[in-house]
Amino acid sequence: MKHFHQKKVKKTCIFKALKTSFNQITLLIFILFLSSSSISQNDSINKVDEQNQKQGYWIFTNQQKRLPGYKPNQKIEEGTFLNNKKEGKWIFYYRNGNPKHILYYENGVPDGQATFFYKNGKIRETGTWRNNRWVGEYKQYYENGNPKNHFNYDDRGVKNGKQIYFHKNGNPSLIGTWNNGNETDDLAEYKEDGTANTERYKAGPKLDIKNKVDSLQVDSLISEKDSLALKIRKFKKPSEPIAPFDGNGYHEFKDKNGNTTKVGEFEDGLLVNGKIFKYDEKGKLTLTKIIKDRDVVKIIRE
Question: Given the DSSP bridges, would you call strands 147-153 and 161-166 parallel, antiparallel or unpaired?
């Protein structure tokens, strides 16, 4: 009986040992599978071909870009390369991780839909960028989400057709028609509450406030019989004062004569994407600097 019990115990121990070994082997296989999957996934990005040209999907972190304020492993931009040139959709990021802008490339050059964002994630401007200019329908927004400008450009990047400027509360400030980049007589200016502003132009058609609630009903160019027809929202004074500019986000600076001196996207008080304007003593524009990623990329002398 004792011999039988010892034999049974021995078999039990062997079974437990085999079970433990099986579990260990299973775990090892699982770990190897995960490792191979991870290696396979990493092998599918940031690849170069035999000619050392970037191909396929790439993700750039700050270990490569070395931008101030970003963490080393933080994603800076991502998209696809074709023969060492950016192609298709590319996403660029702020330090807080939100998208900074989304551009579509063709043969290494931005060509197509382009959308720029505020740091809070709201859209700053969107449209079609082609041949270093906006073409077609273009929209720009305030940081609070309300429309700022709604323009129509031709293939040359020149304003043609209906153009609308908005107050910060979302109501239109100026509506009119442009011809070959120039204003026509079809212009009307409005105050924040939607009433006519006749300081510069004759009173345009009365704007019909359709909404009783405080929301914009139409954010689009209107093509009706009345070229200036637009439904707007009921004006409501802000309950809180507007916060002063803190050096970050989109802003426009003006001199004492009302001329724009700097406009664009700022970070810590520094213009990173936008324009700088210089004027002579008579207030005539003499110089325009185009700023991109903190650098002057173009100077236009008038």
Answer: antiparallel
